[in-house]
Amino acid sequence: MDLETVKEQSGPREFGPADEMPREYREAATRMIQFHANSEIMGAYIERPFIRQAPSLDRKLAVSAQVQDEVGHGQLLYRAAEELGIKTREEMLDELASGEGKFLNCFHYPLDDWYELPMIMFFVDGAAMRRQATLKRTSWEPYAHAIDKICFEEGFHIKHGEDILRTIATGSRRDRQRLQEAFEKWWPRILQFFGPTDDDSTHGGFATDVGLKTMSNDDLRNAFLNAYVPKAEKYGLELPEYPRVEYHADDDYYEVYEEDLDWEEFFTVAKNEHPTGAGQIDKRRRTQKAVEWVRDAIESPDTTGVSPAAADD
Amino acid sequence: MTLEGPGDLDDRERAAVEAELRCLGDDEFVTAERYTEWQVRGPTLESDIAVANIAQDELGHARLWYDLLEGFGHDQVDLIWERDPAEFRHATLVERPYEAGDWADPVLRGYLYDTYERLRVEALSESAYAPIADRVEKALGEEEYHREHAHNWLERLCEDAEGRRRVQAALDRLFPHALTLFAPTDREEAVVDTGVRPVPLSELRREWRNVVTPFLGSLGLEVPVADHAELLPAARGRDGDHTDAWESLYNEFTFTYEQLGRESAPALMPEPGEADADV
Amino acid sequence: MKWEVFRQDKKKDYHTHVGSVHAPDAEMAKQYAQIMHARRKPANSLWVVPKGEIAEVHADDAGVEMGGTTRKEYRWATNYNTNESFAEEIEASQREQEEAEEDLAEADR
After folding, report:
1. DSSP output for chain A
2. ipTM of the prediction
3. CB-closest option in C76, C93, C100 to A151
4. Contact A160 C84 (CB under 8 A)
5. Which chain C residues are closer than 8 Å to B142 by Cβ?
């Protein structure tokens, strides 16, 4: 199939492994799905300390299940990406560990404590869910299939995140202060979650033309703000003065003053060069290196000196 | 004679029931706490997801046993979050830290622990204290998967020279701590003769060694043969004496609870004993 | 040799199991599958998989407790119900979970 045909025919779940897709399509789809899969894994790294630090048995169970789901979603997504025939799962996981793999800006910043957790579990996961819902209509069918399962499972993550947010927000004055501080620290990063305005987006145009992406960054961010700004306000959180966000009631639109956001940091993060993000990647690299011997043992066992019964296997 | 609930117990029986439940609940809770360290650190994405499930199952079992202690007027706060670390009664096996990447450890530890848990919980199916006997099935229902998981991994690892070396090292290190699973509390005599657990720990230990020694031996591993008295580590856990790893673990898992300064632990779902949600 | 057949009715659907065919190799299995499972109602795609390569775990197997035996409500969106309103995609996720719960209840009856 040539590129023109792809653009003409593109629609929800239109293309699958049986179609001969041009290299440009396969590369763009790989880039997008690999980014998504990497983000699931690195998001799990951000949340995992709170399995241990959860302040009740039920919260511990829920956070453990959330981290588990993120890894499960990574597993589904790497498979959807693998079917494009550009990279294997091993290659993509190696790239993630080596610092070559890219992932969402918010997962480059480890959380300080429980007060910051709802920033990821409610706002960032909520933003991710917003984006994912639109990907049920992506043109790469295996990606849409993975998204079906992800959306099915992920609802509870945001609801649990909101439950944590509510508990803190209805606590002491000190709790509310710390929550507000966490919010102010995270709010600019959350606004940058959907990337720069469409004009500046490097790959957005092509991905939209071939139906991989079904909604623009701007529209996604606006839909997110529509649902989540009222939530923030409901829990007593005040939007900081900067970056400026103005609501225009006539066309139900949130104007974000992009010049108030630190895009230099954003692009440093995007290149995996921000120190905190590099630290997260380093964690991934170290933990993966530490278990490499297990993968070697199961893939190509060295049977020297092991019992005959086992060696016959 | 069956004891139907807290109201049927005299002081000695009550102390016996509480001691037994604390050992069970604390073992499960601390085991799970350690397992979760493998989340996002497992050798493959699939093994990561499996170990998370096992951790959640064990936490579910901790809920089963702690919930029965709540029948004696305790709540989760005094059972876990505000409890003095020296009052925890888990065996030292479950609190030992992992070395980075040493997958042989959780696999072997899981095998030793799950084999023990099955024997102890099976013995409790005959408990004179009915609420314990009633929950045995729920706890055992999930154990088979855990043991299969450990079996499969041990077999795979022991087919490889490096894998087997690592499992052997874990065995040498953990076996003495595993024996603390059978260390008595100061209520052991009452637990047995009130029938709360009709089988003494010494008997369970014999059965356990009869299961684990031949199985591990069949994988080409050398299992310690000395008497338990010779092998036992200095700290036994069951008497409140723990290894150095316990305090830091305790400080980590109580960190947020302390920071929030609340006096409650949020519940998100019904207690284990409540009727199943109407689906 | 026995082959299990998975059929996709139309483009974009999931493949679901519809039956099996006996055939000496994959090429012939595909031919038979078309006759057996797509002759009246044409399919968009068929998969054939050697039966021997399918490993099964069954809910009735000894020691198998799929979904576990202790409470797992913490992983259901439906467990976190409050009077809140949620973003539409969260509501959709919850609806899908509710439907799955209903299907399970249906199967139990």
Report:
1. --HHHHHHH--TT-B-TTS---HHHHHHHHHHHHHHHHHHHHHHHHHTHHHHH-SSHHHHHHHHHHHHHHHHHHHHHHHHHHTTSS--HHHHHHHHHHT-S---GGGGS---SGGGHHIIIIIIHHHHHHHHHHGGG-SBHHHHHHHHHHHHHHHHHHHHHHHHHHHHHTS-HHHHHHHHHHHHHHHHHHHGGG-S-GGG-SSHHHHHHTTS--S-HHHHHHHHHHHHHHHHHHTTPPPPSSS-EEEETTTTEEEE-GGGS-HHHHHHHHTT-SHHHHHHHHHHHHHHHHTHHHHHHHHS---TTS-HHHHT-
2. 0.95
3. C93
4. no
5. 65, 68-70
In one letter, which amino acid is A88?
T
Q: At what angle do helices A141-169 and A57-82 cross, to 10 degrees?
A: 160
C109 close to B (CB below 8 A): no
CA distance A148 to A146: 5
Dist. CA C61–CA C56, nearest whole Å: 10
Q: In terms of C-beta density within 10 A (0-12 exposed, 13-18 middle, 19 or more buried), how is residue C32 classed?
A: middle
Q: Which residues of B237-266 are buried (b: 16+ CB within 10 A; e: fewer)?
A: bbeeebbeebeebbeebbbbbeebebeebb
Give the span between the Cα atoms of A129 and C88, in whole angstroms: 10
- Residue B97 to residue B105: CA distance in whole angstroms: 10
Per-position b or e across B115-143, b if 16+ CB within 10 A of its CB: bbbbbbbbbbeebbbebbbebbebbbbbb
**Residue B109, H or E segment:** helix B104-124
Give the whole-angstrom CA distance, residue A121 versus residue A143: 23
Is the Cβ pair C93, A12 closer than 8 Å? Answer: no
Q: Token pair of A44, please?
A: 């799990």
State which H helix or E strand residue B106 sits in.
Answer: helix B104-124
- Judged by a CB distance cut-off of 8 A, whether residue B39 touches chain A is yes
Residues of A with CB under 8 A from a CB of C: 12-14, 18, 58, 61-62, 65, 69, 126, 129-130, 132-133, 141, 144-145, 151-156, 158-160, 162-163, 166, 227-228
Contact assignment for A155 to C12 by CB distance below 8 Å? no
**8 Å CB contact of A301 and B45:** no
- Token pair recorded at residue A122: 């409610």
Q: Do A287 and B41 touch (CB under 8 A)?
A: yes
Domains, chain B, in order of start with CATH, read 9-260 (1.20.1260.10)
Residue pLDDT, tens place only, C59-83? 888 888 888 888 888 888 888 876 6
Residue B206 sits at the chain C interface (C-beta within 8 Å): no
Amino acid found at B20: E
CA distance C108 to A135: 34
- How much is the mean pLDDT over chain A? 93
3-state secondary structure of C21: strand
Interface test with C, best of B138, B148, B149, B271 (most C CBs within 10 A): B138
List for chain B the helix, strand, coil content (%; round to 5). Answer: 65, 0, 35
User: pLDDT digits over A33-90, tens only?
Assistant: 999 999 999 999 999 999 999 999 999 999 999 999 999 999 999 999 999 999 999 9
Taking CB atoms and an 8 Å cutoff, what residues of chain B touch A66?
none
Q: In this complex, which of B32, B156, B269 lies closest to A298 when CB atoms are compared?
A: B156
Q: In the predicted model, what is the mean pLDDT of residues B43-67?
A: 95
- Give the separation between CA B72 and CA B6, rounded to whole angstroms: 6
Q: Which amino acid is at B50?
A: A
List domains and CATH numbers for chain A: 3-299 (1.20.1260.10)
